[in-house]
DNA sequence: ACAAAAGTGTTCCTTCTACACCCATGA
DNA sequence: TCATGGGTGTAGAAGGAACACTTTTGT
């Protein structure tokens, strides 16, 4: 059944899972347990199973690698990577996904994932196996533009957060300062971006901040443009 | 070599090739010569060859179906489509591309492509084989946002065009009127969007219009937003 | 002169930007 | 009362929307 004209190949799914942690943008990186690239850092991922849709494979891999429920966080397809020779095992095409989640502790998960760890993007860049450096760069760029045009920043936060927390997400992901005064107005003035919970968070020093949860709106019009 | 855990599959490339023709947005559609969906309209495409990169496969299919040089026009990946059952022949994952080109006559091409024809998007929508209706919808939406944020509209035009021609592209792709006065100013005032050729086009009746060619800039900042 | 399409000037309005200023709290 | 972060007011600049008006041609 396999011929040369249109040959069979294996399809993998790779995940660039981003979070904001300790005021830096971090990516979930595993250390490869097997050849090829054994011992090298890489993005989590794995092969598509027989009768599985591509997003389902991404959700499954996410659960296997992090122990988390992929239906609860943001997961979007970036694109397919298929350069011949990108995988020394043979012809493998990978569909890359961008995932975004709050800063949760990584369950010291089972099988494959014992080595999963958060690593600052700046530190991971240039060190990853396969073509994962390229995937990571495109994932970060996608996340940056998503913050401009969607309310996605809230998925970096937990169930409740202050406007300052949300602003910190923008500053860390964009790598540039954002004016706190104008940012508050913009967020609060955009219907459906955030909803007040009624609670407040009292800092060690300073005025308490109102707590919010993510609103129903997903797109941002007008957008919040980077400088 | 094929096991159930991570099975082999075939990878296809499908192309949503758009142009503006007779004041409508049209898509290149073929009539399928073979099963499955024999006789039904579909997007052009085909299987990836053994040692071929994915964009190369898209360029090759474009050449085979239209006789045109895919290196000269805009070609960008949309995403991978891999729902089980999307192709009755078995497990086939397709990487879809958006292509944009000027309104050129279709060479009555060779092998596969004798049935290639331009069809208005509104007319093609809902009639295509496989999941190509979904691909077409996403291609059109991508093209619409590309016009907002990039200078891509010029690739719908030939080597030289008037500002009116370019405005017509926006009106047809967006499906809404655009103010001619403000549009001129915006386009001419954006450095690198268009360059004057020095020639003019003299219409049957009316003031001659200056001719332009595409400029070097690709992104559009500030963008041209839809209403 | 007239039709048709190209292009300019101007006014109003929304939004962004920058920054002065006030508010609420714990130590 | 001070430090700290939360939040409001406001003036200026930039850009978009709407539209009156002028320009350039062939018939």
UniProtKB/TrEMBL annotation, chains A, B:
Keyword Hydrolase: yes
InterPro entries noted in UniProt: NUDIX_hydrolase-like_dom_sf, NUDIX_hydrolase_CS, NUDIX_hydrolase_dom, WH-like_DNA-bd_sf, WH_DNA-bd_sf, WHD_NrtR
Superkingdom, taxonomy of origin: Bacteria
Pfam families: NUDIX (PF00293), WHD_NrtR (PF21906)
Domain Nudix hydrolase span(s) in chain numbering: 8-142
Name used for this protein in its record: NUDIX hydrolase
PANTHER family: ADP-RIBOSE PYROPHOSPHATASE (PTHR43736), SLR1690 PROTEIN (PTHR43736:SF4)
Molecular function per GO: hydrolase activity
Keyword annotations of the record: Hydrolase
């Amino acid at each position: 059944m396999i011929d040369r004209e249109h040959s069979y190949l294996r399809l993998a799914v790779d995940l660039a899972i981003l979070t904001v942690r300790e005021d830096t943008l971090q990516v979930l990186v595993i250390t490869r347990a097997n050849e090829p690239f054994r011992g090298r850092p890489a993005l989590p991922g794995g092969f598509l199973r027989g009768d599985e849709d591509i997003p389902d494979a991404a959700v499954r891999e996410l659960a296997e690698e992090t122990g988390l429920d992929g239906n609860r966080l943001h997961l979007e397809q970036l694109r397919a990577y298929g350069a011949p020779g990108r995988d020394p095992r043979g012809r493998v095409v990978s569909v890359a996904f961008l995932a975004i989640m709050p800063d949760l502790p990584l369950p010291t998960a089972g099988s494959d994932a014992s080595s999963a760890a958060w690593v600052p993007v700046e530190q991971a860049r240039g060190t990853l196996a396969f073509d994962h450096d390229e995937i990571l760069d495109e994932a970060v760029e996608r996340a940056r533009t998503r913050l401009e045009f969607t309310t996605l920043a809230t998925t970096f936060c937990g169930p409740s957060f202050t406007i300052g927390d949300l602003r910190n997400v923008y500053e860390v992901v964009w790598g540039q300062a954002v004016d706190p005064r104008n940012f508050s107005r913009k967020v609060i003035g955009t219907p459906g971006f955030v909803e007040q919970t009624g609670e407040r968070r009292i800092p060690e020093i300073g005025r308490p901040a109102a707590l919010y949860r993510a609103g129903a709106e997903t797109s941002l019009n007008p957008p919040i443009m980077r400088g």
